[in-house]
Amino acid sequence: MKRTAIMGRLMLAGAILVLLGACAPVQPERQRYFWPPGTSEPRIEYIDFYEKAEDARRDAPARISEAILGRERPRPLFVRPVDVASDGQGRFYVSDAESRRVHVFDLNRFGTGVLQDEKGQDFGFRLPHGLAVDARGRVYVSDIHAHQIHVFGADGRQLRSLGQGHLDNPAGLAVSADGETVWVAEPQQHRLTRLDAEGNVKQRLGRRGSRPGGFNYPLDVALDAQGNLYVLDSLNARIQVFDPQGSFLRQFGERGTALGSFQIPKAVAVDPEGHVYVTDARAHRFVIFDLEGRHLMTIGAKHSASGGVAPGGFLLPGGIDADAAGGIYVVDGLNRMVHRFQYLNDAWLAAHPIRPGEAVAR
């Protein structure tokens, strides 16, 4: 009897879906949000937000059948999200310090999951923090309390661990496209460490100080297309840039409230187009520079999502990532969600052209 009832509901759902596809009115387009606002030549677009497993299915055809057949009430996934990393192909990862998990969002398959051990069980992180993805889709996770970096395959299962016995409370990290170089920030030691693919220490960089090459709690690192290293030197409120061998090149940023300055910077990312993105937690925004450190744009303002999500509204933003496809992902810490933006490159505009009037809608 139970099986018959289920089959009956499925048949009913299928019939309704056919009718909806045949006669449902065209749904209105969602409002588009661009930066800089009020210009006919936008550079950044707000795409979406993610706080529940249901959000990965927002554009899935199955959403109608779920509504018909019923589903559990969605619950927020994140408790204390820290960092985010995207593979540039529709999958991104979010570390959560409170639940001690790394969540996986697969927007192509409209699903979510968590990183796992070799047996397919939830991986037992002690305190997951920094994230990075290489060109083969391998995921790197710094585990602060385990003092090492865990590496996972594109299937989400652990491959190996790096840096055992060599790292002290590792935080932000950056990985070369081929996975042969791993840079990791060790804030409490005021230094960076470079590992090879096997986890051998190849270089130590920095010591506590405010001069070029000195650090005061470096929290995050990023690599540009030439292999140059961008270091978020948090308590010095600046970005320092080093060449692939670790030689100092330049620095930019300062503490303050003016555009292009930082109050409490948290994370850094570099995109393939040559832009540097820095989150500023206390200012509730992220700041965009060119590779030389010239200020280009600032996006964000203080906003609590308890009254609804606002594009560009943050409450203590943290981790940030800019992927090969131009996607920009920002952890919104106290709002317990991730926001997705898009740099308007040629490929994106070809697939999502801006119609007359849309770019100056707000």
Write the layout of secondary structure elements.
Layout: H1 2-23, E1 33-35, E2 44-50, H2 62-69, E3 81-86, E4 91-96, E5 101-106, E6 111-114, E7 128-133, E8 139-143, E9 148-152, E10 158-162, E11 173-175, E12 181-186, E13 191-196, E14 201-205, E15 207-208, E16 214-215, E17 218-223, E18 229-233, E19 238-242, E20 248-252, E21 265-270, E22 275-280, E23 285-290, E24 295-299, E25 301-302, E26 313-314, E27 317-322, E28 327-332, E29 337-343, H3 346-351
Parallel strand pairs: 15-16, 25-26
Antiparallel strand pairs: 1-2, 2-29, 3-4, 4-5, 5-6, 7-8, 8-9, 9-10, 11-12, 12-13, 13-14, 17-18, 18-19, 19-20, 21-22, 22-23, 23-24, 27-28, 28-29
Helix pairs in contact: 1-2
Pfam family, one: NHL
Protein name: 6-bladed beta-propeller
NHL repeats: 78-108, 117-155, 202-245, 249-292
What would you say this structure looks like, in words?
This protein is mostly beta strands and 362 residues long. The strands form 8 sheets. A 5-stranded antiparallel beta sheet has the order 1-2-29-28-27, with no helix packed on it. The longest helix is centred in the first third of the chain and has 22 residues. The N terminus is likely disordered.
List key phrases describing it:
362 residues, NHL_repeat, 10% helix, mainly beta, repeat, 6-bladed beta-propeller, 6-blade_b-propeller_TolB-like
Counting DSSP H or I runs of 4 or more residues, the number of helices is 3
Please provide the count of β strands: 29
Q: Helicity level, as a percent range?
A: under 10%
Shape: globular
Structural class: mainly beta
